[in-house]
Amino acid sequence: MSIIDIVSPRLYNLKAIRRDLHAHPELAFAEHRTADVVARHLTSLGLEVHRGLGGTGVVGVVRGGRGLRAIGLRADMDALPITERNTFAHRSTVEACMHACGHDGHTTMLLGAAEVLAARPDFDGTVYLIFQPAEEGEGGARAMIEDGLFDRFPMESVFGMHNWPGMAAGSFAVHAGPVMASADRFDITVRGHGAHAAMPHLGTDPVTAAAALVQAVQTIVSRNLDPVVSAVVSITQFHAGEAYNAIPDRAELAGTVRAFSEQVQEAVEARLRTLCEGTAAAFGVEVEFEYRRGYPPTVNTAAEAALCADAARAVAGEGAVTTAAPPSMGAEDFAFFLQKKPGAYIWIGNGPGEGGCTLHNPHYDFNDDILPAGIGYWVELVRRLLPAR
Fold first, then answer.
1. Residue 174 CA to chain centroid, in angstroms?
2. Paired strand residues for 190
3. Rounded to two decimals, what is the model's pTM?
4. Average pLDDT in the 292-312 region?
5. Could you tell me which residue ranges the Peptidase M20 dimerisation domain spans (predicted)?
6. Mean pLDDT score across all residues of the chain
7. Contact status, residue 331 vs residue 182, Cβ threshold 8 Å
8. What homologous superfamily is domain 3-180+297-385 in, according to CATH?
9. Nearest to 82 by CA among 368, 367, 369, 358
């Protein structure tokens, strides 16, 4: 009997769980109801359950055979501060909060895998099911690590999966190396001297200086980095002034840096600092620069990525798995796990991203039709990593 055949009888209840989670989204570190749903379901399967890691995180334990090896499978649980624009019956019931990234589906796929593994523990070792809070910008993976995740649940490798709109439903993309970028933030304050707009010579204009700095920042990627190296530097905020007839005394800029390596992060940060210093000297203003490291790049280890690709092919077929997809400049805090353990983070196709059904869009919805493929992938991966003796 194939994995899909094993999963199929469970789909009705799993879809109900997924849609219930979608209707009751919770933001980062507030996933109390979601954690309750997860813990109850794991307990109903007779599994060992641990709560409270990283605040609202849940870890379920599935054991098979007598093997001492262990791996971790991770799903994220949090939603986004977005007002849902869908009108279907399971739309969000929470104002300005929705599952616009499919974490409801990720949680459900891992719960489905828990059902199959608990019912058929035909593997040798331990599987830790990691239900993580606060992926969306708040670093829930780091919080779980700091709370002792890898000390309390020693695992040799860890794996993650994210749905990907625009890829054929149930297909897979596996990267050997970088899959998602870093996400750093910076703030720049340009201080001048205010003046009447009709008498600019009596002041020092921070707006002019800040505008020149915005232009200069765009040269970092095009003129300071190797052309074959990927990076994105974006100014996303520019705030200055309150009146039509007054030159303000300050301007504020903010933005993000995306890269696939720490070396590029360091190079961009250094160049930003140099440009700020140069702008201050050229325009006679004061420039304050603050750079904050966020999520690191998500980089798969090659051996684990190859195992993931084989597991995906066993479920979806050779033609439905690619290892040549370009990585994304989006960020993912699964990167913190991969800094500590070997492993891989893969994409599962969610179907066409049409009609606004793209990530972080108010019309997004997870595609329930890919639940069998996602669950099947998790189960097949466990069987390959922890083969029964």
1. 16
2. 251, 287
3. 0.94
4. 98
5. 185-278
6. 97
7. yes
8. Zn peptidases (3.40.630.10)
9. 358
Bind-site residues:
101, 103, 136, 162, 360
Give the tens place of pLDDT for each residue, 361-388: 999 999 999 999 999 999 999 999 999 9
Could you tell me the pLDDT band of residue 1, with boundaries at 50, 70 and 90?
Answer: low
Cβ contact 107:123 at 8 Å: no
Do 66 and 126 meet the contact criterion of CB atoms below 8 Å apart? no
User: Going by C-beta distance under 8 Å and a sequence separation of 6 or more, which residues neighbour residue 46?
Assistant: 118
Domain regions of the chain by residue span: 3-180+297-385, 183-295
Residues 90, 91, 94, 97, CA torsion sign: positive
**Nearest-angstrom CA–CA distance, 17 and 38:** 10
Instruction: Check residue 3 and give its pLDDT.
Output: 75
Report the amino acid identity of residue 92. Answer: S
CATH code assigned to 183-295 = 3.30.70.360
User: DSSP string spanning 225-263?
Assistant: S-TTS-EEEEEEEEEE-S-TTEE-SEEEEEEEEEESSHH
Distances (CA, A) of 256 to 182, 238, 268, 276, 387: 10, 13, 11, 15, 43
- Going by C-alpha positions, the residue among 341, 47, 322, 273 that lies closest to residue 164 is 322
